[in-house]
Amino acid sequence: MREQYRAEPFTEDSLAPSPMGQFARWFQQAVTGGLHEPNAMVVSTATPDGRPSSRTVLLKAYDGRGFVFYTNYRSRKGAELAGNRYVSLLFPWHQIARQVIVTGTAERVSRAETAAYFRTRPHGSQLGAWASEQSRPVGSREELTAAYAALEERYPEGEKVPVPPHWGGFRVVPEAVEFWQGQENRMHDRLRYVRTRDGAWSVERLNP
Question: Strand, coil or helix: what is 186?
Fold first, then answer.
């Protein structure tokens, strides 16, 4: 099973000055191109001794500082990031033959930023953040729904739900960002921004 990609050449002179600027361009094109959940990304973490794990998470914000997602800090990824800050993000935009690959370090966002985002979540999602002991074993589906029902009774629709102390955001601060454009005959374009010691960005082209 193989797809023959065809696209306009992706060249160095077409790049934005910074990787976040280039990401904003491609992300907007993914959105207007009708991709399903273009903010879905694969987040890969590892334990201190290097055992990796991956899962799909939704990007909730990005700016010049990095990429933000939210999770239970007691989850597997939360625990792994507590012991090993290195992380990778992958945006797999297959429908337009593009990928964005981010490597960097994760840091917690402020509680104020977490609270501001939490208030934008639907009421049910706010309850879900409390009901789920993310990544931990649960005896049954019934046990999980019972926990949610108890919270629903305690905090009915319209009632303010407090932000769980064990839940919040991570900001991934990029050290390198690769933009991958599929091309014919597997001669793909791969342009990678790399942060230099003085904080500036250099660009290198990688073999496909």
Answer: helix
CA atoms within 13 A on the CB side of 138: 13
Exposed, middle or buried, 24 (CB in 10 Å: 0-12/13-18/19+)?
middle
Tokens at 44, concatenated: 């890969």
Residues in Cβ contact with 66 at an 8 Å cutoff, skipping those fewer than 6 apart: 20, 104, 171, 172, 173, 174
Q: Name the pTM for this structure.
A: 0.92
Q: Tell me, yes or no, if 154 is annotated catalytic.
A: no
Return per-residue pLDDT of the chain as tens, 208 residues.
777 777 888 999 999 999 999 999 999 999 999 999 999 999 999 999 999 999 999 999 999 999 999 999 999 999 999 999 999 999 999 999 999 999 999 999 999 999 999 999 999 999 999 999 888 888 899 999 999 999 999 999 999 999 999 999 999 999 999 999 999 999 999 999 999 999 999 999 999 9
Q: Burial code of 123-157, b = ≥16 C-beta within 10 A, e = fewer? A: eeebbbbbbbebeeeeeeeeeeeebeeebbeebee
The catalytic residue among 186, 190, 192, 205 is 186
CB 132 within 8 A of CB 144: yes
